[in-house]
Amino acid sequence: MTPAMWGALLGGCAAAGLLVVAARVRAIRRPQLALRVLPYVRDLPQVGRTPGLRVPSPPTSATAGVFGPPLRAAADTVERILGGASSVRRRLARADLDKTVHEFRIEQVLWGVGCFAATAAVGVLRLLTHPGSLLVWTVLCGIAFVTGVLARDTHLTHQVRRRERQVLAEFPTVAELLALAVAAGESPVAALDRVVQRSGGALSADLGRVLADIRTGEPVGAAFDRLAAASGLPLVARFAQGIAVAVERGTPLADVLHAQAADVREAGRRELIESAARREVLMMVPVVFLVLPVTVLFAFWPGVVGLHLTTP
């Protein structure tokens, strides 16, 4: 081929690449249908303020396009080996993570790859300085990969527990606010709307999703029954069931909310007392190893100094 033909071929490739980039940029900059429609739906919360109405953005990274297929294949393999998709789905919902089980499996693979890469880097440096058995480091890299995969699952459990603690800490205040609004004459839905707009937190986000379901046409009892089924806390489940029964049968809701808030506060005090009883020995550690030696030192040090001054 002549240089002119090579130049034409390279120019055609460059032009095709620029056309692909321009088409992709135009597609990315085009506003999504949800962003154009949701601002005109007055009854629903605004996008971004309610976690249940976040608009997912498609992946636009070149890295996701290149490494996406092998990561998805590895995630499918992890799913076949570990299983438990229903448990993972339930914990993702309880942790308020907007992810699917497949996306969580991909994160597990990434954690495993990270641990594998760190162990492999240490192994390569170790073998370069002190040559040894390659098989041992290969086994260690495999163990590191499995550890990373399991560590992501353990981290998800910690996220669930942390969010449940936040819900329990917020529950008495939210229940009291709902009781005050209902006692002032508002309907349960209007009281729920007022509390959601003026509060923030994990429980407020859950109630915001319930309010969005109610405003889209779902019955109040069914929406709160779904919250009771999705929650992993018996107190929140009892709270949702109490509101659903009160709305359906017309029972006094304010007294129920006040009683449930008092129950949660009493449960928190009881848990604090039980935790202090379990950690009684740990609470004695600073007293025995810090306060007591300092007290003894202050008591005997002047006598020791006085003996040194009086002895010849």
Automatic annotation (TrEMBL):
Subcellular location: Cell membrane
InterPro entries for this protein: T2SS_GspF_dom (IPR018076)
Type II secretion system protein GspF domain span: 176-298
Signal peptide from the UniProt entry: none
Keywords: Cell membrane, Membrane, Transmembrane, Transmembrane helix
Mode of membrane association: Multi-pass membrane protein
Protein origin, superkingdom: Bacteria
TM region positions: 6-25, 109-128, 134-151, 281-301
Protein name per its UniProtKB record: Type II secretion system F family protein
